[in-house]
Amino acid sequence: MNLYCTMPFPAAGESLLSPAPGQETGLGRPLAYRIVHEHHGHSQDRTLGTRITCGCPEHNRTAKTPMPRILIVDDEAIIRTALRRLLERHDYQISEAGSVAEALEHDPRRFDLILSDLRLPDEAGTALIEAAAPTPVVIMTSYASMRSAVDTLKLGAVDYVAKPFDQGELLDTVAKALEAHTTSRTPTSEHADTPPQEMIGHCPAMQVVYTRIRKTAPADVTVLIQGESGTGKELVARAIHRQSRRAKAPLICVNCAAIPETLIESELFGHEKGAFTGASAARTGLVEAADGGTLFLDEIGELPLDAQARLLRVLQEGEIRKVGSIETRHVDVRLIAATHRDLNLLSKSGEFRLDLYYRLNVMQIDLPPLRDREDDILELADVLLGSACRRHRREGLKLSRAARRDIRDYPWPGNVRELENALERGVILAEGNLIHPDDLGLKPATGMHYPPAKAPTPKPAASDDEADLSLEDYFQHFVLEHQDQMSETELAQKLGISRKCLWERRQRLGIPRKKSPRSRST
Questions:
Q1: Of 372, 378, 304, whose CA–CA distance to 386 is shortest?
Q2: 3-state SS, one letter per residue, for 243-270
Q3: Alpha helices in 284-373 (DSSP H)
Q4: Could you give the angle at the alpha carbon of 369 between the alpha carbons of 512 and 315, nearest 5°?
Q5: Are 150 and 358 in contact (CB under 8 A)?
Q6: Burial of 3 (0-12, 13-18, 19+ CB in 10 A)
Q7: If we measure between CA atoms, which residue out of 455, 398, 404 comes closest to residue 430?
Q8: What pTM value is reported for the model?
Q9: What is the pLDDT of residues 170-191, one digit of tens each?
Q10: Would strands 434-435 and 334-339 be described as parallel, antiparallel, or unpaired?
Q11: Are the C-beta atoms of residues 517 and 262 closer than 8 Å to each other?
């Protein structure tokens, strides 16, 4: 059986790379015309296994089985026909629909992939994401509407294709989506909610986290992890990396708050020799070191605005430029960011770039605090206790019944990190084979005061209770009173602690660091 091409072709002078006048909404038309022309109307009847050709002997071939089943949903027949012929040429079994309602009639769950336009006559193409689950959905959208693309990923689409697109881009996206879907349908998917390596806990809140990790990891999109300090945000980042297609490439972890503001750009993007005082040799930045792999930026809310602008360039264009250099370099990096702060509020106050926030918040994973994981606390305690016993060579230590009760009831403001520290303290202080509540030191220390510093006289209302201030209360009071007049170094010196300890206590108590004008080194 022969089938000859009867599709309309652009008139003389009409570009194949841009929409025809008056047809700006059909951003895929040029591709459709090109596919129909280049493939000479080639198609195959997959249902009957009959070979249908355009009459050109070089295009005759036999269908292969089994073939992945793809449903194309688009209200323009020329787009559907072109995509059908392109995909069938690469051994995919294709069905078509012109609207969401028509797609539902095909039972979308029986397909291996849905390829849908974003704008359809009855509903948005994203309505198929939930209706077709667990079948993955790839959304076709305008390249000029990046916000729409981000929104589709948030709704659960596995990927999006910007119109106008070329054949290679489309085929690559389809292949990746099908590969991820095939992996998720293997027998191991029955245990999809099993905690990733190094992660402990089975409470409902953590089950949600494990599911989000499993779905997000293969998608190769930017991920924003939010949660209080000590909840295990880096463990989530490592789990995402291990389950991604970049698992064999490097994972570079950076704590943005631990690097001085004057050096953060040099650390992230590198510098050339002589770029500033002390730059005695050229240096490769951490972003470039993560090329081909994953970059994890912890506490990204502490990143200075200048570095935020450079990072935005990396996400938008995949380009970096070293400090002091005029050359740009291309990098392929997946970014995972984490913070305990509300970036949306920071963007409204001007402390964080709004456009960077939108770029980061493609997929979001919220980690629950330890106090909301009641069923997991004792399980975590047992695992962490075993690790502490091995480190200190005190095998056989156990928690007393009273200690287990206190661990279960304690609010754990420092989350898992505080629990780990308390258990390590208990292992060191325990006299016999049992760790008792006193060994854990969970009661807030009182009656401890630092020597008087140069500070305004406390208000009368607070002076009566000054003797009852805990160590944390004193720290919070002192920092809030003096951070406008003192630098971070001066505050740390007055408190008798290191800058790192000062930063960690700020995070635990939720005291934001005062932003100071950033001085440039030239």
A1: 378
A2: CCCCCCCCEEEEEHHHCCCCCHHHHHHE
A3: 286-289, 305-317, 343-348, 354-360
A4: 60
A5: yes
A6: middle
A7: 398
A8: 0.52
A9: 888 888 888 876 655 544 444 4
A10: unpaired
A11: no
